[in-house]
């Protein structure tokens, strides 16, 4: 980031070196395909006697006792744990101070952030807020922190790898990980495809690769640190360093930082506190997480009136229609609502006319959306039915059997059957 500005990439502004990209593709494909044959000459073999007679190279440690250049690092936390702010502070401190929370570095580092979740202006605001809170200005950062705003742009890891190499980035951060996964995060095979690309990126650029990931549903404090992170556990087994953020038992704005390290000695958990736009080490707070049934583990949203979440529901729909079950899951993940309160919020939105429902789509389930979106979906459904009907008529005229006719869709806007009339529990 130069003088507070960010670099917004596009496909034309990220020309990938063809030879470099080809090497990455070949290496990634070879690692992915278990049946891929490999020439024996390409298998690197080291004589152990050589190792016993020489000292190992000194690692390029980016944060002392934590991780090196070329490592893979995962930052995991639940909803509203301020993962993005934590990551921004991590990047700013590496680029300007050579220290982060209780860890230090021998020198300032070059960092590239690739963020694909937040709009440019809001990410700009967050960077400025954290920097101001830490007293970091443009002269402190210089040209050591660069930002790629990739929301709405297909993330091309090959092009990003080439750009990182050109910028001589020592740390490349991806926030969030789910935007990069090609397939289902719960499937080890699909997750492996992305991890292989990160391996190639780290090996070819020499940079440490950091990715920000969300936690599984439920209370993260009830799980071992080795079981953190949503989806396949391949992610945690694969990384060199795992940093976790877990809600603190006593304070709403505090978190417990946990570390699982592959290459360096274990570290004790410690507490941090969000204060005036940045995190600080909370030496006065014991590192006690909010386990289920423990004091202070009350759902943080339980005292907030449901009416205040109505705009969040519309924001979650994001101009689309969504099955009710999926919408409940999204509300729980994004806004920490319980399953019951998420269902009650949908009922409240139906009652107030903010959204409507539709049960005429196949597979048969209750869909939720704004009136305009649902009406459009119904029109598309009716048009598809009409096309199928015309097709069946043509086949019948040619003497071919027809498909079972589609069951007639019930009328949606029937005041006598709207679920919005249900009484919403408070």
Care to give the gist of this entry?
This protein is α/β, with parallel strands linked by helices and 426 residues long.
Characterization of this structure:
It contains 12 helices and 16 strands. The protein is of the alpha/beta class. Helix 1 (18-32) crosses helix 7 (188-205) and helix 9 (310-317) packs across helix 10 (324-335). The chain has helices at residues 18-32, 48-52, 83-96, 120-134, 138-141, 157-167, 188-205, 234-238, 310-317, 324-335, 339-351, 371-397, and strands at residues 61-63, 67-68, 72-77, 99-100, 103-104, 111-115, 145-149, 171-175, 208-214, 241-247, 254-261, 270-275, 278-281, 322-323, 356-361, 365-369. The chain folds into 2 domains: 18-33 and 58-281, P-loop containing nucleotide triphosphate hydrolases (Rossmann fold, 3-Layer(aba) Sandwich); 306-421, Arc Repressor Mutant, subunit A. It starts with 17 loop residues before the first helix and ends in a 29-residue tail after the last helix. The strands form 4 sheets. Strands 7-6-8-9-3-10-11-12-13 form a 9-stranded mixed beta sheet, sandwiched between helices. It has a 3-stranded antiparallel beta sheet with strand order 14-16-15. The chain is globular. Strand 11 (254-261) and strand 12 form a beta hairpin.
